[in-house]
């Protein structure tokens, strides 16, 4: 997968992070919900990306890096990538050539699961999985993942609290990048444009 568009600039602090810390931000954006440092470390190991010099066998060994990313406001208190950087970080992973490795690692460590509907839609605990898989469907050009997860997100009251804007708006319009957008499938582009244009009216 390639992405040749020159990336919109992050907060300037991003460029001063180490490559390891930049990869952590990117990986957290792919994970959508990081859960904890142990899961993050396991996923990072599965990507095969290099570690800095030193010991990285336990979650505590990445604590200083996580704290730095939180202090720079790239990650929140739950180790999740902040929404304002989410799509930029994922697109940077694509640009840097790490995205497919990260998706594979995340899905190995936290596989997609069968989601059941309740009276108010899916359970709130499943919403991060749905949004993660929806985003992967968009970025990996996997239309089935988009088609399966989008209605579940939209029908769930719990998911609407987690994702206050339409998922297409979050992924495709935060920020909008015309060249990247034109690389999506026609069907996805039509769906996304319908949402984006109706939002602008």
Describe the structure.
There is one protein chain. Helix content is 58%, strand content 2%. With 201 residues, the chain is mostly helical. The longest helix has 15 residues, at 186-200. The N and C termini lie far apart (34 Å). Mean pLDDT is 90; it is low at 1-7.
Number of helices: 11
**Could you say which structural class the secondary elements and strand pairing correspond to?**
mainly alpha
Strand count: 2
Percentage of residues in helical conformation: 55-70%
Biggest sheet: strand arrangement: 1-2
Q: Low-confidence parts lasting 5 or more residues at pLDDT below 50?
A: 1-7
Q: Which sheet architecture does the biggest sheet show? A: 2 strands, antiparallel
What is the C-alpha radius of gyration, as a whole number of Å?
A: 17 Å
Summarize the helix and strand pattern as letters. HHHHHEEHHHHHH
Strand and helix map with partners:
Elements: H1 19-31, H2 37-47, H3 63-71, H4 83-96, H5 99-109, E1 117-118, E2 121-122, H6 127-139, H7 143-155, H8 157-162, H9 167-173, H10 178-182, H11 186-200
Antiparallel strand pairs: 1-2
Task: Give the key terms.
mainly alpha; disordered N terminus; two-stranded antiparallel sheet; 201 residues
Short synopsis of the structure:
This protein has 11 helices and 2 strands, in the order H-H-H-H-H-E-E-H-H-H-H-H-H. The protein is mainly alpha-helical and 201 residues long. Strand 1 and strand 2 form a beta hairpin.
